[in-house]
Amino acid sequence: MELVDDEYCFVCGHKNPIGLKLDFFFNFKTIKTEFVSKKEYQGYLNIVHGGIITILLDEAMVKLAIAMNMPSVTAQMEIRLRKPLNVGQKIIVEAEILKDTKKILEAYAKAQTDDNVLIAEAKGKLVKV
Question: Which residues pair with residue 80 across a beta bridge?
Fold first, then answer.
């Protein structure tokens, strides 16, 4: 399988008119992005939908694998939503690789506020392609 980036990724694609258009910053060990939700991504009144937070955690893990020249796709994710995120509140999403085997990467991602309140975290198994 070949992974082709046509800039339409919902999270990071800058050509996607309804996408989040997030930029990620790689430091050779981890990757980070910042996100501030709009009201369009809420679940309950003024609370960001958990699916949006989940997609950010997933994207960070896969984006890190790609940045480390290990293109991968998510095979399994375990998500823990710890605190509600208010619409308009900024979070920092960061990922790291925990284990690298021949075919599988194990990764971890977290989303937290500027003052280090943990909003959500995920562990993922990524299959190298």
Answer: 121
Phi, psi of 123 (to 5 degrees): -115, 140
CB–CB of 26/20 below 8 Å? no
Is 107:79 a contact under the CB 8 Å cutoff? Answer: no
pLDDT by 10s per residue, the chain, length 129: 788 999 999 999 999 999 999 999 999 999 999 999 999 999 999 999 999 999 999 999 999 999 999 999 999 999 999 999 999 999 999 999 999 999 999 999 999 999 999 999 999 999 999
CA-based R_g, the chain, Å = 14
Residues written for the chain: 129
The model carries a pTM of: 0.96
**Selection from 36, 35, 13, 25 nearest residue 88 by Cα:** 36
The CATH number of the structural domain formed by 25-128 is 3.10.129.10
Cα–Cα distance measured from residue 66 to residue 59, given in angstroms and rounded to the nearest whole number: 10
CA 119: distance to chain centroid? 13
